[in-house]
């Protein structure tokens, strides 16, 4: 019923481009997002824990394949994201009916048969990113405490376990999860985006300093070697390459929240015009940092590049601590950006299934202190559901605290369906490109190549995860 009302209302307003306020409330939802808020959301979603593993990934690939892979994934992500922005409305990119979520766009263009696959891929990716961000934040928390203890020579006095840090991060996430929706998270995204620049610049600066200190470019053309006289086998080299591709894919993945970000934008100008500019800004900025950190980090550490670039630095300890603090603050914000679509999906589903049940809709409105007109709706059912979900996510993070393996698996599993397959398939449907046409062959060829690469990356990440699980203890995170 809601979609039908949206269609009628949207159809009556497609020619009233001058009425900005009416367009903003086309389906009853006020949208106030701008180019800059969308850019902030994009940067927050893209620059995450994946950037910390890029130097290690380049080390597995070497000086030839490493930079090529970084540039290739950046180019593919940007291109398919541009295609995806045009799918926000259907059947036309400008005057069509709104598709407020990724799944709504898939249903509109490809039909209900594709919705289940999209649902599994999108929400598994979003939830997996939340697990990854929990693990990464805990790593940074531990590094701060470790650094302080080493500096003060008080190792014995630092006994906090990794699980304690997990609980702390989960508690903060539960508190912030009570923010109603993605649009209300703008301030947190802006702060997180600033933090991402902060630790990226520090990581880059420390890598440059280390590179200059030893005066040569380390690493090799083929990356980590696999000769018999070295400590790594040919099989391990192969799995390492595949896992590295998964890590790079994870670093560039944000398509799962692109439509949701676009749904916060006001118009005019049309949402796809603004979102394309935001996507360009976010892609260029993040790609510059990614390529620089991945390559300069490899030049500094060579084939011994650590899985998390910041763990390779001990001094100056205060600067490393600041970088890790920036990571924690950024991932606290990014966690919420990825969590909000999940919350909205479950909450809307519950309300649709039980519309007469007031438990999921009854709450209180509280005025925000020190503001004139802002208020916050408190709904007990949402607090309970969101808190339970985050507690579950935190427990899973305790079970699988493996940084590189989790990143590679998530990137490999989500990149092809969400970043490549659905945007390309929806574009073909939208533009009515005939099967067998030159453009059809090119786009389908791109999709096939990405599928093969992602399958290989998933295989390598699964092998790495299985190997890590052999040496792991249940709910035990080594300090």
From TrEMBL:
The Amino acid transporter transmembrane domain, residue ranges: 32-466
Compartment annotation: Membrane
Annotated TM spans: 35-56, 62-84, 160-179, 185-209, 284-302, 322-346, 383-403, 409-428, 440-466
GO cellular component: membrane
InterPro entries per UniProt: AA_transpt_TM (IPR013057)
Gene3D superfamilies: Amino acid/polyamine transporter I
GO aspect biological process, one term: amino acid transport
Pfam families cross-referenced by the UniProt entry: Aa_trans
Record's keyword terms, sorted: Amino-acid transport, Membrane, Transmembrane, Transmembrane helix, Transport
Official protein name in the record: Amino acid permease
């Amino acid at each position: 019923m809601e979609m039908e009302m949206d269609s009628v209302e949207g159809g009556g307003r497609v020619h009233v481009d001058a009425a900005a306020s009416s367009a903003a409330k086309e389906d009853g939802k006020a949208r106030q997002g701008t180019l800059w808020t969308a850019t902030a959301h994009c940067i927050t979603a893209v620059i995450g824990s994946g950037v910390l593993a890029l130097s290690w990934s380049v080390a597995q690939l070497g000086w030839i394949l490493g930079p090529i892979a970084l540039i290739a994934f950046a180019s593919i992500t940007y291109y398919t994201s541009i295609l995806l922005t045009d799918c926000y409305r259907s059947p036309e990119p400008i005057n069509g009916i709104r598709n407020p979520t990724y799944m709504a766009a898939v249903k509109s263009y490809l039909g209900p048969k594709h919705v289940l696959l999209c649902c599994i891929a999108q929400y598994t990716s979003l939830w997996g990113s939340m697990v990854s961000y929990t693990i990464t934040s805990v790593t940074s928390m531990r590094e701060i405490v470790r650094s302080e203890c080493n500096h003060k020579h008080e190792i014995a006095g630092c006994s906090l376990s990794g699980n304690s840090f997990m609980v702390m991060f989960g508690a903060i996430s539960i508190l912030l999860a009570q923010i109603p929706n993605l649009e209300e998270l703008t301030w947190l995204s802006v702060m997180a985006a600033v933090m991402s620049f902060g630790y990226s610049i520090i990581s880059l600066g420390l890598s440059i300093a280390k590179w200059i200190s030893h005066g040569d470019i380390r690493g090799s053309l083929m990356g980590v070697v696999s000769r018999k006289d070295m400590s790594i086998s040919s099989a391990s080299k192969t799995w390492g390459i595949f896992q590295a591709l998964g890590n790079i894919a994870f670093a560039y993945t944000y398509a799962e929240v692109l439509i949701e970000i676009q749904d916060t934008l006001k118009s005019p100008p049309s949402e796809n015009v603004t979102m394309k500019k935001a996507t360009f800004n976010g892609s260029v900025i993040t790609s510059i940092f990614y390529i620089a950190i991945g390559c300069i980090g490899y030049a500094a550490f060579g084939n011994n590049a650590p899985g998390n670039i910041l763990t390779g630095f001990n001094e100056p300890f205060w600067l490393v601590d600041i970088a890790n603090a920036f990571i924690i603050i950024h991932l606290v914000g990014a966690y919420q950006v990825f969590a909000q679509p999940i919350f909205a999906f479950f909450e809307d589903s519950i309300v649709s299934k039980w519309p007469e049940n007031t438990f999921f809709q009854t709450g209180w409105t509280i005025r925000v202190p020190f503001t004139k007109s802002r208020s916050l709706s408190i709904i007990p059912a949402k607090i309970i559901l969101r808190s339970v979900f985050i507690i579950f996510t935190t427990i899973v993070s305790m079970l699988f605290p493996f940084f590189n393996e989790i990143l590679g698996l998530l990137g490999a599993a989500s990149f092809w369906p969400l970043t490549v397959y659905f945007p390309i398939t929806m574009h073909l449907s939208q533009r009515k490109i005939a099967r067998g046409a030159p453009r059809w062959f090119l786009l389908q060829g791109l999709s096939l190549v990405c599928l093969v690469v992602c399958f290989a990356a998933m295989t390598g990440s699964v092998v790495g995860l299985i190997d890590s699980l052999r040496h792991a203890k249940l709910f035990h995170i080594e300090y």
